[in-house]
Each structure stands twice: as structure tokens, then as C-alpha cells.
Please model this.
Amino acid sequence: MRVDKTYTVEQRGVGKPDYSKEISAGQIRPGFELKYSQTLLVFLIMFSSVASAYSWAKDPLAAGATVSLVDGMTGDDLPYTVPLGYTLAMISAGIVCNQDIEVWQLLKVPPIPIAMRELCLTQLAGGTPFYLPEVVAFSSALFDPLGSISFDYDVQVTNKGEADMEGMMGLYMILEKVGSPLLPPTKTVRCKWCGATKEMPIEASTIICDECGKLFIVYPLRQPKGMS
Model:
């Protein structure tokens, strides 16, 4: 004799799983989430003979030349001005170039010793990849934990080789609010073709210049809200 039992099971959803709560982590990096008080910044540069609409794409760097990185969110060359009431920290860095290079971090912060204002981040032989994942190589909280001063942060790369350099480098940074109002919901972006500026929403990434009509692309980062 066979006995069949029937159960009632609560239906919890139809279709694809809801991953909406994981979007912020996917936009940043696996396993890393931002706090409410934090904003992700990226400073980067690419040297290439191939024309590109990306704001951080530059022509190959001549031997002996030095340039600053680009603020990926706006297209402006560094230095980046850290606002009053915020701290800035580096969380990861990556570099791949085909010539010998030297990379310096430069801070314009008069109250601190010059030894802390000028730091050689790395010297690499051509073709040697460099990557530091989730390593805090720098934090302004070390000398200003309350964000009591505003200062300029710059990173410069020098081609130490004997030929034009191609390659790229990028630094991921955390800007953290300590005591001032939150950052504004807009940003001023700079056209990589003609240098014209315009005000755009903070999440804008693909932009048509009002002056020259050309397309340029800034880093497609949004400001996620609070996950950890």
C-alpha cells in the first residue's frame, strides 16, 4: 500500500534571483564594499598610439618625460584636491608598461615633513607587471585623522627608458568623510579633445562635448550606498 503526502510550500519568487543588493560590490571589486561615508576614486593613465575616447588615454610617453595621472571620474589631470573634512587612502595599485618607469606620490601639505610629501611608489623594469591588491600604501589619516586640512594629491610617472612608452597604470583610492557635508551630486568633467568643461551628474560616464561635439568617456563609477 502506498501513502502519498501533500505539502504546501511558500513561493518566494519567480524568475531570476535578485542580485540588486550585490550591485555595489560588482561595480567596485569582488569582496570589497563601501561604507556610507566612503567614495571610490580612481586615478589612472594609459599610453597608447591607438586613438581612444577614454579620458585617461594619452599618446605614448616620450623617453625622459614626466606626466601626472588622470582623475578617472572627471578627466582632469592630477593633482586631486582632497576636500576639507575628508581623508584619502590608497587601496590598490596596478602598473604595466613596456619601458623602465619611476612613479612618485607628491603631496602639497605644508604642515607635514617633506619626507612624507614626496614618496617613490615604485621603480620598475620595462614589461614588469606591478599589482598591490587591497594594500593601504598611503592614507592621509596617518597625519590628519580628522580631515582638518585640504591638500593636493598627485601621482607622477616618468619614462626612464630609451624609447616612447606604452602601457597603463591605475590607483584605486577611498575618499572618506570625517566631519564635513557629503560630496555634491554633480561633478565638473573636462573634454579630452578640446579641454572644455561642463557640469554633469556624478554618475555620468559617456559624454558628448557641447563645444567640439566629440564623445569622451570618464570612469563609470557610481557612488554606492552603504553596505558594510
Summary: DSSP finds two helices and 16 strands in the chain. Residues 23-28 form the longest helix (6 residues). Helices lie at 23-28, 114-117.
